[in-house]
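quick one, 214 residues, struct below
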Amino acid sequence: MTDEFIPQKGYYRKLRVYQIAEIIYDVTYIFTQRFLSKGDRTVDQMVQAARSGKQNIAEGSAAGSTSKETEIKLTNVAKASLQELLIDYEDFIRTRDFELWEKNSPKAVATRRICATNNDSSFFREAVRIRSAETVANIAIILIHQADVLLYRLIERQKADFLRQGGIREQMTKARLQYRNNQSSQSSQSSQSSQSSQSSQSSQSSQSENNRKQ
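---
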């Protein structure tokens, strides 16, 4: 009965959005090590925001087995954390007079295509170690935009699941009622079977008695 109202979760590693969030964390870590001063408070802020995005997707998925509300809340936290990180990258580009790639520019289109089809974090780690600060920041921004779209879709799906299935208490109540109905049905069938058996035995006994009298 437990499996009926506590679905197996923790599938976050298979989620495309988690894979992108992991890449964003790796890219951000390398970015801050290469292009920001060690004493710069922005280093910790960016790394923590990237980590929060990744971790809250994982924790939300794990919590989903017992609390849809918590799952939605943590996924929203992940989305907000990546938005915070996006602003940091945009600030970095603006304050250094770098180029923020236009959405439909050749570089942005090519990078978006690569990011959309590649979930290998090692590929991106190698790439950003040899690219310029401007290029790495723009790659990170494109990745964050893609993650944001996927997180929006994930949150909408989680909301729909909650409306359709309810929370854990509602699912437990439904499971208990189903269990009781099954028990009642089995008891009724058993009683009917017993009565039928007794009736058959009584009929056979009466027939035997009539045969003896004849």
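The chain has a mean pLDDT of 85.
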